[in-house]
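Changelog excerpt

This revision adds worked examples to the README so contributors can see how folded entries look when concatenated. The first example is reproduced verbatim below.
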Amino acid sequence: MPIPESKNSSHAQDCAIFLAGGSGRRMAGRVGDKVLAPLCGVPVVAHSVRAFAESGVAGTAIFVCRDNDQRRAIEEILAAENLLGRFAKIMFCHGGKERGDSVLNGLKCARAATVAAENLAFIHDCARPLVAAGLLRELAEVARREGAAVLAHRCVNTVKRVPAGLVAGTACVAEDLERDRLWEMETPQVFPLGKILQAYEKTAAGNLRFTDDVSVFSHALGGKVAFVENPTTNPKITVPTDLALAEILLRQQ
């Protein structure tokens, strides 16, 4: 469904892929759909979309949905929050069994929407609603300069590596990791569309599974990625208490 081009979009040829179709199993039935759940009176998904609209980093918005019911719900939210006209084009596609399958479907949809291979694709989990517009603009700048970029924050906890298959409660010698070299990945993760699509197609052909897009990019193509440090908290809504935490953080902004 094409939408008149947004006056705020300075990079109308780039795209944002919003992953909305997660199963939400760890919400323990507290909410029916975590990206549709209210957060400070606004559905979770709307917070991310609003940040992208304000940033102007992408003219095409692609929503990867679990099913048609979720798609209709997101369409209604976009209309209610006056977000439809903020993008030049809005498209929807269905997700897959795993996150990687959903990303690949979204990337293919972007190519079908005539987003060029050299343009940027922002891959974003809708369950991270606290992303800021200013950081999105910084990500775009860094990705253009360095070739790819990811939003991340430094690891502040001590992390240990244990032997494979270790059962909790069993003694072991744990491996120490250098904390000053550890970063925790966030989203968006930003790449040239053609390259990240090629990377996902390659890993899919090999039936390889990864937990984030940087891993796919680096494994399949040996691609380097620049880290953009997030100085604020951008938690992923995973368990019921995450919604309460996100409410507190939003009210403090």
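The second example, added in the same revision:
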Amino acid sequence: MKEEITRIEGSDGPTAVFIAGRNNGTITIRQRIQRFINRTRRKHIENYIKAEPHTINQVCEYIVEKLGYVELSKEDPKYQEDYQEMRASFLIQYEPELLGSLAHIGDLTEQTEEAINYYLSQLKLQQEAAKKVPVEFFDIDLHIYTKENGDNESHIIVEKTRNYIGGGASGNTKMVRRHNREFKKVYRYYGVSDEDIQNKSERFEEVVRMLALPMR
């Protein structure tokens, strides 16, 4: 059985999630139970998390030296492809004014097929426009780390400028579960400071949220 999981996470990271559905806001019993479990897990982490912060550069070293990942060369076609997509996503989030009329495309207000298709087409135009903005105006410091085992692959992405950490995995269930464990280890190592804990900073919220994610 092959599974695939992709995260777009990270403190101040670019997150674009689009979900179209018609459930009228109904929450099932199972969803209510899972939400309760997630809140309980999060509260436990908030109460017991300790100040053991590390820099984003130290996190990159940890990914290689402790978890056994290999950094992908910036000349690799896979890196180039991901770099283009990630740079565009960061630009849309942090400097959308560079896109002119495509800076803001509004929200999806209707759940009709026509409205959804139009909204998706606007997202695509926005992404393509972002890719065309010269790096002299906007750039990112992207690092991609991979671990492969046959057809199974796990990767962790770090953007150093904005302390972004993301990643994903594809392959069998064992690989996906291992990736989930390792991804949490990365966030646990990244950690928080006493100041983060006291002020409930964005870094604190992000680390707690990631550590509270259920294991698959």
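Reviewer comment on example two: The helical segments are 29-48, 56-65, 77-94, 113-132, 173-190, 194-199, 202-211. DSSP finds seven helices and five strands in the chain.
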